[in-house]
Design goal:
It contains 15 helices and 17 strands. By secondary structure, the chain is of the alpha+beta class. Among the domains are: 52 residues, Uridine Diphospho-n-acetylenolpyruvylglucosamine Reductase, domain 2, CATH 3.30.43.10; 152 residues, Enolase-like, domain 1, CATH 3.30.390.50. The strands form five sheets. The protein has a five-stranded antiparallel β-sheet with strand order 4-5-10-6-7. Strands 14-13-12-11-17 form a five-stranded antiparallel β-sheet. The structure holds flavin-adenine dinucleotide.
Length: 342
């Protein structure tokens, strides 16, 4: 039977030394909700596991300068139940809230979600939209990198041997700046996003958008920052009139279906997701067909998983659910997340 060494260092230096000195595959363990599943399936056979949770600062949230600093291994549930964070970064928290189930969220961390490097990772689009920075420890000391620079392809990161993420620094939003995350999933519960969208916008006193970042997950090998979609919003009021004229504007996103192929995302689901309109359009080989379909989901009430309804004390069956089940509906609603502007 293959032998796996497990260590739980109590300092960043010890963790870096162990990771750098390993001969075979060395993996960092945060929550283990990806790593342990991959080990059990035989996909990953690490020689060394370095559990970082005993290192001070790896779990926790603090304010520092103009940043909210989140320890890399902090469980999603700890962050979701932090009212201050929920108010400040509703999009990032929404992304975390959509990961798996209550049990998974009790372990799953931002660093694990990012470094597992799935194109469909739910917390990553809103992190990138918020200009989050990863603080990385390694053999040459600490360095910082924007979150969008970490994933370089499915299952691959830009981290070098001996390096691991210690914490994330997220700039505190200015006044009238807020974020949101929405995703589309093939099933109605616990599924992987076919498309996820993180948006961070800043408005001026008159309600005109002065800055925007729009980030798509699951449509390409890595998360995509869609500058054209952001440009289409800047300089305009984000009202219904503007958003309806911005649909597909400014170039939209050219999603290469071959590149975007991902073992958990079906072509059919991706095609359906093209009807989801976040103020941009996904152009596919079936573009003409997408244009002819009615896009309506974002005008309806958001859908929550059962555990999210319980956590938010929302009734398990609402008028919106009844509307979704009404005869004549083309397909079940599988969009999750909500837009909250605090
Ligand atoms: C039932 C189930 C449902 C799920 N649903 C979703 C979902 O809806 N959406 C979604 O996005 N994900 C989902 N996931 C995947 C998983 O829960 C998330 O990706 C989670 O955030 C991973 O975090 P973790 O702390 O458990 O990572 P781990 O499993 O500990 O690590 C994941 C990877 O990141 C690396 N890593 C961890 N920490 C660091 C660090 N500090 N520095 C460098 N590398 C690091 C590890 O070495 C490993 O390669 C699901 C998983 C399960 C089992």
């Amino acid at each position: 039977m293959p032998r796996v060494n497990y260590i739980a260092p109590t300092t960043v230096d010890d963790a870096v030394k162990a990771l750098a000195a390993a001969n075979g595959l060395a993996k960092v363990l945060s929550g283990g909700t990806d790593l342990l599943v991959q080990m059990k399936s035989g996909r990953l056979k690490p020689e060394l596991i370095v559990d970082t949770k005993k290192i001070p600062g790896l779990i926790g949230v603090r304010e520092e300068g103009g940043y909210t600093v989140i320890g890399a291994a902090t469980p999603g549930a700890t962050l979701s139940y932090n009212e201050q964070l929920e108010h400040t970064f509703p999009g990032i928290i929404e992304g975390l809230d959509l990961i798996g189930s209550t049990q998974i969220q009790g372990r799953a961390s931002l660093a694990g979600n990012l470094c597992n490097a799935s194109p469909a990772a739910d917390s990553v689009p809103a992190m990138i939209a918020a200009k989050a920075i990863a603080v990385i420890a390694g053999p040459s000391g600490k360095r910082e990198a924007p979150v969008e620079a970490i994933c370089v392809g499915p299952g691959r990161t830009s981290l070098q041997k001996g390096e691991f993420i210690v914490e994330f620094k997220i700039p505190k939003p200015k006044s009238r700046q807020c974020d949101a995350y929405l995703r589309f999933i093939p099933r109605t519960e616990m599924d992987i996003a076919v498309v996820g969208c993180g948006v961070n916008v800043t408005l001026d006193a008159s309600g005109t958008c002065t800055d925007a970042r729009v980030v798509l997950g699951a449509v390409a090998p890595t998360t995509v920052l869609v500058d054209d979609a952001a440009k289409a919003l800047i300089g305009h009021k984000l009202d219904d009139a503007t958003l309806s004229t911005r649909r597909g504007g400014a170039g939209g996103v050219q999603a290469d279906q071959r590149q975007a192929r991902h073992d958990r995302i079906s072509h059919q689901g991706r095609r359906r997701s093209g009807t989801a309109d976040h103020g941009h359009r996904l152009r596919t080989r079936h573009g003409a067909r997408l244009k002819s379909r009615e896009s309506c989901w974002y005008e309806q009430a958001p859908r929550y998983d059962g555990h999210q309804r319980r956590a938010r004390r929302i009734s398990l069956r609402s008028a919106a659910d009844d509307a979704r089940r009404a005869p004549g509906r083309v397909e079940p609603d599988r969009h999750q997340g909500r837009l909250r502007f605090g």
